Amino acid sequence: MDIKQIQELIKFVSRSGVNEVAIEQENFKITIKTNQTPVYVNAAVPAAPVAAAPQPAPAAAPQPVAETKAASAPEAEDTSKYITVKSPMIGTFYRSSSPDKPSFVNIGDEIGTGKVLCIIEAMKLFNEIESEVSGRIVKILVDNASPVEYDQPLFLVEPI
């Protein structure tokens, strides 16, 4: 895989909304991770063509990944008291029924069971996603008109 193919792969991953892609071939391995954090590319090149270049690259790449994991650990602890509303399907997330209409919910809104939280468009069908819990919206985890995956967190709700 040459540098141009790697750049095209990174662009594709960033547009697709996928969180992680790993490709492993006989003498080549690449992992691309996204989640609104920097993209890290780990590549192991065969030792025969260049002996000195592959050694520093794998040693340097794991350090930022470890820092990212350490930084995200406190966030997980902070959100443990909240209920996470997850996407029941793959599609495109919309906060309102049309661009000129107000959002179904905003941060701080109190919701009840059956309240429409958002719409997920899948294959030209617009599916209203209703709340299964009562509480207060603490955080909206997805941007409007963004692609979402099955079981992806959409909202954090503080139970009442």
Short description:
With 160 residues, this protein is of the alpha+beta class.
**How many domains?**
2
- Indicate the percent of residues in helices: 10-25%
How confident is the prediction overall: mean pLDDT? 78
Strand content range: 25-35%
The tally of beta strands, per DSSP, is 10
Strand and helix order: HEEHHEEEEEEEE
Molecular structure report:
The chain is an alpha+beta fold and 160 residues long. The protein has 2 domains: 3-78, no CATH class; 82-159, RNA polymerase II/Efflux pump adaptor protein, barrel-sandwich hybrid domain (OB fold (Dihydrolipoamide Acetyltransferase, E2P)), CATH 2.40.50.100. It has helices spanning 3-16, 56-60, 62-78; strands at residues 20-25, 28-33, 83-86, 91-94, 110-111, 116-122, 125-130, 135-140, 146-148, 153-159. It has a 4-stranded antiparallel β-sheet, with no helix packed on it. The chain has a 4-stranded antiparallel β-sheet with strand order 7-6-4-9, with no helix packed on it. Strand 6 (116-122) and strand 7 form a beta hairpin.
Key attributes of the depicted protein:
alpha+beta, 160 residues, OB fold (Dihydrolipoamide Acetyltransferase, E2P), elongated
What's the layout of helices and strands?
Layout (H helix, E strand, L loop, with lengths): L2 H14 L3 E6 L2 E6 L22 H5 L1 H17 L4 E4 L4 E4 L15 E2 L4 E7 L2 E6 L4 E6 L5 E3 L4 E7 L1
Antiparallel strand pairs: 1-2, 3-10, 4-6, 4-9, 5-8, 6-7, 8-10
